[in-house]
Amino acid sequence: MSNSATESGRDARNWLALSIGNSRLHWAWFQGEVCKQVWHSPHLDSAAGEKLIHGWNRGELWCAGLESPGPPGGEAIAPNPPLWIASVVPHQLALWQSYGRFYLITLEDVPLLGLYPTLGIDRALALVGAARQWGWPVLVVDAGTALTLTGADPEGRLVGGAILPGFGLQLQSLTEKTAALPPVTFPATLPPRWALTTPEAIASGVIYGIGSGVRDFIEDWWQRFPTSTVVITGGGGEMLLRYLQESAPEMAKQAIAMPDLIFAGICYIKQQQSG
Predict the structure, then answer these.
(1) pLDDT category of residue 187 using cuts at 50, 70 and 90
(2) Is 120 annotated as a binding residue?
(3) Is 73 known to sit in a ligand binding site?
(4) Is 22 annotated as a binding residue?
(5) Residue 23 assigned as binding residue
(6) Is 24 within 8 Å of 42 (Cβ atoms)?
(7) In terms of Cα–Cα distance, which of 105, 109, 106, 149 is closest to 255?
(8) Could you give the CA distance from residue 64 to residue 135 in angstroms, rounded to a whole number?
(9) pTM to 2 decimals?
(10) Any known ligand binding at 116?
């Protein structure tokens, strides 16, 4: 943690969490342990970061005039709220280090056994956030820019996981690395598996390819840990659940959807560190 000072009771009531992902910033406003609002924005430049910090000093949750979308309602907060950050993007992390009440969460703060040095902090926090609510063992499927699977055993020891390109990244790769394939956006419903148009064939390949791989991992996990909870999170989680509901309905019924799981992990670490 970058700032070792403990917080007073007043400070603990209002605070901000920021998860810096590969593609976007994920924000949450907390009052104590209660998450009041969650919102998302694109990565910001230094000018926008300074504007937000000045706004927090005045008690503004999000500054008017920023091009990036903020939370609805424009609520006010107590001035100078603590900011707890988990980041996988160093240059975006650097924007916030000038803020006087900045707390950086690293792997050293995460109470998970068997960690390896290059494990993403987002994966570790999602895992402990899931375990805090549903216990060990647990498997987290995070359908973000990179789709990750991360599991821990009944003792809270990391078993391991896998990383593959997520839904959007696979679509982007096909568009940018091929000459004839068009840009594709996912339809509201699942495409036909055996498609008769190029856009539907791309959507089919990405959705059913990723989905079948994830289903195979979950089946293997349940063979190892039959009582384990499986939690699905991330921006592509809804698409993944839609696939499972069609192809493996019993698996879909048992999976738990929690889009903002990482904030449960950040909140838990903050509680431990703030004492």
Answers:
(1) confident
(2) yes
(3) no
(4) yes
(5) yes
(6) yes
(7) 149
(8) 41
(9) 0.91
(10) yes
Instruction: Given the residues 122, 216, 220, 260, select the one marked as catalytic.
Output: 122
pLDDT in tens, 204-232: 999 999 999 999 999 999 999 999 999 99
Q: What is the pLDDT of residue 275?
A: 65
Q: Which of 31, 44, 107, 89 is nearest to 70 (CA)?
A: 44
Tens digit of each residue's pLDDT (9 = 90 or more) over 56-103: 999 888 887 787 778 876 677 889 999 999 999 999 999 999 999 999
User: For the purposes of burial, counting CB atoms within 10 Å of the CB of 246, is it exposed (0-12), middle (13-18) or buried (19 or more)?
Assistant: middle
Residue of 187, 10, 177 lying closest to 82 (CA atoms): 10
Q: Is 122 one of the catalytic residues?
A: yes
**DSSP sequence for the chain:** ----PPPPHHHHHEEEEEEE-SSEEEEEEEETTEEEEEEEEE---HHHHHHHHHHHHTTBSS-TT-SS---TT--B--SS--EEEEES-HHHHGGGTTSTTEEE--GGG---BT--TTS-HHHHHHHHHHHHHH-SSEEEEEESSEEEEEEE-TTSBEEEEEEEE-HHHHHHHHHHH-SSPPP----SSPPPSS-SSHHHHHHHHHHHHHHHHHHHHHHHHHHH-TT-EEEEESTTHHHHHHHHHHH-HHHHHH-EE-TTHHHHHHHHHHHHHH-
Which residue is associated with the tokens 């956006």? 185
Per-residue pLDDT for 197 more than 90? yes
